[in-house]
Write a structure and sequence with these properties.
The chain is α/β, with parallel strands linked by helices. About 45% of the residues lie in helices and about 15% in strands. It has a single domain, classed as Aldolase class I (TIM Barrel, Alpha-Beta Barrel). It contains twelve helices and ten strands. The strands form two sheets. An eight-stranded parallel sheet has the order 8-7-6-3-2-1-10-9. A two-stranded antiparallel sheet has the order 4-5. A hairpin with a 7-residue loop joins β4 and β5. The radius of gyration is 19 Å and the shape is globular.
């Protein structure tokens, strides 16, 4: 493969010790909900200002190896006049780009989803490379429920992830593959583990079949947790044990690292679980983070859309980034 060495080098940097990924790739609809929560209008300028405060936080690079951006953010400039990818590169942080077009209803399978966005993706990758992107991300959604997930749902989502990953590597960009088994529902930890195992087994079999380099990709998985509405919530140690067992069985050792999604967990819950997982010894991959809300929620509330709160917001954000970094190292 033309870009194999470059892909491997970038992937290793993304999961470097004490560092992880900031997911700042919320779609316009999602970031609007976040801004609504602090009663700030979701204008393009307000979205730019919020992301600028996050990305320009002093010493962010001590804890953040890469940032996933949305297409709009990729094209915007910071107050310093730099395009956001340039701002990150100048800090030694790798810019990434969300390239999927979102989870849509899977036809003929009520309640299940498939992710769209493959049309024109090769051409979009060429543009993002020119803009400085070093990695990309594609999220698929697996729903646990009555009779779900079906094999057809898993097949459809794996197909999208694999085709995306191959195109990303072709462009010289590390793919983050994100097959998220949702926390929503009444399922047990054991059911989550079974569905995640089935999904990962199918995913890596197909990635291999389509000659995607395991050493040049990053997995963004869910932790193995019971559904939010399950009556008997398992302990942090039980979650860590089940998560590591699932990965040992299904994630090839060649994969340089996994960056967990926070999946609706509170900032403290996400850190406590990440810490417990990283206290398990003798693992073949780096286990890091790619948190969105769990890194941003406190900072967003501290800001409240007010200019006079800008420094406070950055202080709150860097404090949470430091805590998450410690958890990533099992501390």
């Amino acid at each position: 493969m033309q870009y194999k060495d470059k892909l491997i080098e970038t992937a290793k940097k993304m999961v470097a010790k004490s560092k992880g990924i900031l997911a700042a790739d919320e779609s316009t609809g999602t970031i609007t909900k976040r801004l609504d929560s602090i009663e700030v209008p979701s204008t393009e300028e307000n979205r730019r200002k919020y992301r600028d405060l996050l990305l320009s936080t002093p010493e962010m690079e001590k804890y953040i190896s890469g940032v996933i951006l949305f297409d709009e953010t990729m094209r915007q400039k910071s107050d310093s006049g730099e395009l956001f990818p340039e701002l990150l590169l100048n800090k030694g942080v790798i810019p990434g780009i969300k390239v999927d077009k979102g989870a849509k209803n899977l036809p003929n399978f009520p309640g299940e989803k498939m992710t769209e966005g493959l049309d024109g993706l090769r051409e979009r990758f060429a543009e993002y490379v020119e803009m400085g992107a070093g990695f990309s991300k594609w999220r698929s959604v697996i729903v646990i429920g009555d009779g779900m997930p079906t094999e057809e749902s898993i097949d459809a989502n794996v197909d999208g992830l694999v085709r995306y990953a191959a195109l990303s590597q072709e462009a010289g960009i590390v793919p983050i593959v994100e097959p998220e088994v949702l926390m929503d529902g009444r399922h047990s930890l054991e059911e989550c583990k079974e569905v995640t195992s089935r999904t990962l087994k199918k995913l890596f079999a197909e990635l291999k079949r389509y000659r995607v380099e395991f050493e040049g990709l990053i997995l963004k998985p869910n932790m193995i947790v019971p559904g939010k509405d399950f009556t008997d919530q398992d302990s942090v140690d039980e979650v860590a044990k089940a998560t590591v067992e699932c990965f040992r069985e299904n994630v090839p050792s060649e994969v340089p690292g996994c960056v967990f999604l926070s999946g609706g967990l509170s900032p403290d819950e996400a850190c406590v679980r990440l810490k417990a997982i990283n206290q398990v010894s003798d693992l073949p991959w780096e286990l890091s983070f790619s948190f969105g809300r769990a890194l941003q929620a406190e900072a967003l509330q501290a800001w409240g859309g007010k200019t006079e709160n800008s420094q406070l917001m950055q202080e709150v954000f860097i404090k949470r980034a430091e805590k998450t970094s410690l958890a990533r190292d099992g501390k």
